[in-house]
Amino acid sequence: MNQVRPQAQPALGEEIEARYAATRALTEALVAPLSDADATIQSMEDASPAKWHLAHTTWFWETFLLRDRLDGYRLYDEDWPFVFNSYYEAEGERIARFSRGMLSRPTLDEIRAWRAHVDAAMAPLFAREELAPLIELGISHEQQHQELLLTDIKHGLFQNPLGAAMWDRRPAAARPQDEGWHEHPGGIARIGHQADGFAFDNEGPAHRVLLEPFALSSRLVTNGEWAEFIADGGYETASLWLSDGWAWVRENAISAPLYWRDDENFTHCGWHKRDADAPVTHISYYEADAFATWAGHRLPTEFEWEAIARGQDGQAQAHDPYGGNQLDDAGPPLPRGGEGLFGDCWQFTRSAYLPYPRFRPAAGAVGEYNGKFMSGQFVLKGASCATARGHSRASYRNFFYPHQRWQFTGLRLAKDI
Amino acid sequence: MNQVRPQAQPALGEEIEARYAATRALTEALVAPLSDADATIQSMEDASPAKWHLAHTTWFWETFLLRDRLDGYRLYDEDWPFVFNSYYEAEGERIARFSRGMLSRPTLDEIRAWRAHVDAAMAPLFAREELAPLIELGISHEQQHQELLLTDIKHGLFQNPLGAAMWDRRPAAARPQDEGWHEHPGGIARIGHQADGFAFDNEGPAHRVLLEPFALSSRLVTNGEWAEFIADGGYETASLWLSDGWAWVRENAISAPLYWRDDENFTHCGWHKRDADAPVTHISYYEADAFATWAGHRLPTEFEWEAIARGQDGQAQAHDPYGGNQLDDAGPPLPRGGEGLFGDCWQFTRSAYLPYPRFRPAAGAVGEYNGKFMSGQFVLKGASCATARGHSRASYRNFFYPHQRWQFTGLRLAKDI
Amino acid sequence: MNQVRPQAQPALGEEIEARYAATRALTEALVAPLSDADATIQSMEDASPAKWHLAHTTWFWETFLLRDRLDGYRLYDEDWPFVFNSYYEAEGERIARFSRGMLSRPTLDEIRAWRAHVDAAMAPLFAREELAPLIELGISHEQQHQELLLTDIKHGLFQNPLGAAMWDRRPAAARPQDEGWHEHPGGIARIGHQADGFAFDNEGPAHRVLLEPFALSSRLVTNGEWAEFIADGGYETASLWLSDGWAWVRENAISAPLYWRDDENFTHCGWHKRDADAPVTHISYYEADAFATWAGHRLPTEFEWEAIARGQDGQAQAHDPYGGNQLDDAGPPLPRGGEGLFGDCWQFTRSAYLPYPRFRPAAGAVGEYNGKFMSGQFVLKGASCATARGHSRASYRNFFYPHQRWQFTGLRLAKDI
Amino acid sequence: MNQVRPQAQPALGEEIEARYAATRALTEALVAPLSDADATIQSMEDASPAKWHLAHTTWFWETFLLRDRLDGYRLYDEDWPFVFNSYYEAEGERIARFSRGMLSRPTLDEIRAWRAHVDAAMAPLFAREELAPLIELGISHEQQHQELLLTDIKHGLFQNPLGAAMWDRRPAAARPQDEGWHEHPGGIARIGHQADGFAFDNEGPAHRVLLEPFALSSRLVTNGEWAEFIADGGYETASLWLSDGWAWVRENAISAPLYWRDDENFTHCGWHKRDADAPVTHISYYEADAFATWAGHRLPTEFEWEAIARGQDGQAQAHDPYGGNQLDDAGPPLPRGGEGLFGDCWQFTRSAYLPYPRFRPAAGAVGEYNGKFMSGQFVLKGASCATARGHSRASYRNFFYPHQRWQFTGLRLAKDI
């Protein structure tokens, strides 16, 4: 990667190879604190073992790049696609999702060896310009799994009554933020990915949306505010909740965000005293919506959020222009508050995750990446402390079901003006 | 209704009283073919017994009009609100939804007596102008339950392996329709209820939406076309389906619309040979979406549908300007095809059921009518053969979960142009 | 029955015809207070609608007597066996058990007409001596369903929050009983049906069992004693319970017998103040066992119970020699305490329901009557206030799963001596 | 253990200490082929991770011997009892059973260190004669968990579609056995533990039982015979099955014993060709009963089995007099057929697992060992290839629910004579 290159042309290949290498290295650094056993457990159907994330991302490269695009490549192990394919129907049958936690074999080291093998085999492909979009997709895909790996292992360690921790570090105190509002006059806004550079298919086509005047809070709702919501009977007041949300609260005896216990929060560093100034995280859409109702405000639409993120001229910078608290090395992801729209936690919008006008999924198996999930989920914007820095952007659309809350999910209020 | 009216003033009160009376009478006419036992069964949690619909609509009048607005009114039976409240949290605890089928008491005749009692007690209220909006709501509410009553009893009779029928009539043959497209140039469209007259709170506020150019089919998808979809392996081809839809197909071994068996359909008149020219009905959102994908088109948004319904000048007539096949007496609802956008079946849109900009639910218990259901459901437009004529309009938003299909649900294709 | 009989021979046929007629009449008298709707509801998978019991008992006669033994008999309705067969695999497919509550058709009157038709058709069969055993089986079968009909409709009416009652009568006060013990010196006891007269196949073959010395209480445990058990924390003390029982208590939040509410019990006559002197009923095996442990005693084995019932000479009278409170007309079954071993409630034994030595089920479909249920259930002895008088006997083996308690189940303590 | 001992007296202490050491060593040898990840997975609620078995057996010693009987002993880790208590209610709350698979921490090595610590701490207790019964219980307890460890890890590895194996060995061919019958003339038999030496409380009190004449097969049913049962439609013939068994077959689509696939069986050594002469294993009670019915025979009672095992004089040797194929080192347990009644597989009896006359559980937490499981289960006799040699005896009563089959369970036929 660092060798001297006299020609100008190969620059793109080099740049992408460097990002490939950095991404692959970060994934491995994230699992460095984990034992084979830690990396094997699966705590619920939504989550996957850390080991599986390591293998699945590698399966992605081996399948869509090496197998499909590199002449003569032979699969490292012909039986592994069955266990490491996630949901690509076009790639055939696969292990039941909630059986991933039974994979004590292959070992973590065997998967690391596979990773090294695939990385070596990838070398000749970076120079092939026509593959750049697919490689970009693979990098973004692996970054998404870095975040899932972190939230999944957090959920797994949380099951352990002995208070298992992944890193031994004390969370830094959060910075208190003043209330403020980003106002927007309404009118036609440009939405969706429109610049150069990689984006997922679900971020386009770029199109125009008509907005009413509104304001978006300049800061995230905090743990301290959430404690007030609880103290005011938020979880016992049916009128604050969506009907499905109230049913969810009652059936699951929900009375606080996930990972709350007394005055402590569970983190990748074990149990720690809750910081009232830190953004609240690990809430469901139902909780976010109920809080907003209680607060006399509402959640923003995904279009409102994006319009603010793009700013006056409508030209968002390619990547998270507002800085913030995101993942840039293999340390523990810990929300501590920041000034930008990106970082700390994904922010629920009241927009359902649906196709943009004229959206068409890509052909082939990678067409299953996004489009087929467009029912029943809500869009989240921004990025979290577990999102690789550089991964998100103004047009980025994350999505989860309204009851899910094992991600670093939080909220930023909006209001009509 | 047709009588001569010399005086100007009493018109509003009389007109509304007449519609009240007609609505109440139609509800009772619908259950005339049912025995007490027929009216008692509950086939699934989504459905309610016919008897319960009769009672619940009466509870609505007794609670929100008589109890709350008529001095000195005493409840007919103080224990009945517990069993006949549907989902109004503000009205207190109530019987578990899936226990409604245990109500062999009160009898159908006892409920009819209650209805008569309430109808008599309502007399003085029609002249009070300030109550008109609430009475309009009650009439629309009862019309909605007329439709549910019909679809619920159909589902109940369907459970009976002996082929129970409610009416003894042979369905008329459907009229074949030519393919055609309503084209729309895109641009800003006015959406939502904006005229005089009653509308549910979820139909407003009126606002503007920016549309891309599109076309909406002039006709509904038919049983014959659906048979082609099946013959072409539609239910076995994962790539046509949303991910949740595919899981639903597999878990429930779905291979046809509800009420299909060999070359017959179950109807309120028992099993009858399926009519290839009739609109397909009793499909889920997942099926509608998969069919549209298979057909190379897509579902419309609720905004596109409404824009076509409103026509050139954007001024839809208050009620179903396109005629069509809707409920106007107590005969069996049977889809047989029609030329308008309204009637035969509700049409799935790809729009999630969410609040319009600046939407606020009404204060009090009736505020629970619509707003709290705004997650996880999809909007359907139009009206069905089980919808009371005059009930629907261009701004009407029906909504169901994507797996539900016991309503008369169908689809009308859309495409980008 | 009371007519003069000069000839000796025809006596058997006449006697059995009279019992047939009386049994059929009692079944119909039991449902006289029920509406068609009452007779249609099914409150849980274990229970069946009253209407279904009326029909199923008739199906039994039509299938095994008329269809199989009467030349030229044609089924009343060829589709009905599918819905009114209970569990006879040899008789083909049938409606799912928990769909019986969807049978609003045929109506109660239609089933009564079928009953009359079958009763008339049966006339020529009583004189055929070779059919007597099968007719006896049919009578006993219908008596069993009389009891199930009563316990099932009780459970159904109980679901109604309005406190529906089947009879309008006030339960008589129970007679207090003194504690006493029937002692037995142990040794070899004759067990099983050994006299003339009908018995189910599971009551034989008669055989010998070796007993240790023991004593059996002369009376049933009462509601008053059960209240002491509750007051002493019986339902919160794990050490009193079988492991499966404790799991059942916790999962279902059990804290009292079925049909208890404050100081009232639900009966066929509605809610009434609980009588402390009456035998406790509607308890599960788990509860019976926990109570016995708490009381410092134990449950008897089925052999101990039968040995006491047979008395000194080992020759129990054919039918319930001890009198007691059993069903002999169509009044409400109400436990009020009695001196015999039979009546008021079935009494749990600690014996699993298993085959006696050399047991073989009968050939053909009626061989499915008892044998195939010999796993996972416990034997109950005696009879209840809902058991037709004359139905039970010392060798009678009733059986239920350890969690079931919608029957009139109670307990009689035993101890080692 | 190997030190010179001049005195005669300490013999008992030495002998028991040697068995303690051998048992503890065998447990650890069994897990030697497993990685920490292998030892962490839990494949179903019935099974526990290998790691958990290692820890739970150690918890037993630490709790009931060291904590309760050794002055001044302090718990190795005060939080561990919460996670390593199995089901002893008297020992307080504990982790949910199906969360044991989340224990990636403590590591396998940390648990081994705990084992060593406890082993060292136990040293002074062996000489205390009054503790011998409790130590014997602890040894037998750990032997039971050796067997569970083996069957649980087999079930865990079986989930892995990659065919994970624990040992790399080829199963030896089974020895074909001729059919023969052990006949018994009936009469009074002595049942239950009556000699010196350790036995579980559920094996007593010794008592007499009256038997009818019968014969017990001299050999186990084989895979080859089971294949005939399948070929003859055994799994599709309702009349062969208990009612609960037939429901289980249909709901779970059962068509062969567990671990059968085509002509192979899954073993601790991976997938291997099935040996027709080897005893069939991994069947449920329902299957055993259906096979016996199909074969025209029946299952023995536990009393019949024991009477044959005790032989002519009624004096069974303390431990498995018939030799056979049992666990005596840390090799893979593989059924290969043998001549004795013990070994290869546990043999289902038709006896429900119930208390013997005058049975009383021990006082305190160890009283929960057996008694509280006496409902819903069936007794199995003999021993399996995964049972530690010396662990079983004629009076031994193993017990499982009728649907369970992940143990080495098989059958030996009986018949009336």
Description:
4 copies of one chain form a homotetramer. The first copy, chain A, is an alpha+beta fold and 417 residues long. Chain A folds into 2 domains: 12-159, Four Helix Bundle (Hemerythrin (Met), subunit A) (Up-down Bundle); 181-416, paralog of FGE (formylglycine-generating enzyme) (Alpha-Beta Complex), CATH 3.90.1580.10. Chain A contains 9 helices and 12 strands. Chain A has helices at 11-31, 50-69, 80-84, 108-122, 132-158, 223-231, 243-252, 285-294, 302-310, and strands at 181-184, 187-191, 207-211, 214-217, 260-261, 264-267, 270-273, 346-352, 378-382, 398-400, 409-410, 414-416. In chain A, the strands form 4 sheets. Chain A has a 4-stranded mixed beta sheet with strand order 10-9-8-11. Chain A has a 3-stranded antiparallel beta sheet with strand order 1-4-12, with helices on one face. In chain A, helix 1 packs parallel to helix 5 and helix 2 (50-69) runs parallel beside helix 4 (108-122). The radius of gyration of chain A is 21 Å and the shape is globular. Chains in contact: A-B, A-D, B-C, C-D. Chain A binds chain B through residues 87, 89-90, 188, 207-210, 212, 238-239, 241-246, 285-286, 289, 350-352, 354-355, 357-358, 367-368, 372-376, 378, 402, 416, and chain B through 87, 89-90, 188, 207-210, 212, 238-239, 241-246, 285-286, 289, 350-352, 354-355, 357-358, 368, 372-376, 378, 402, 416.
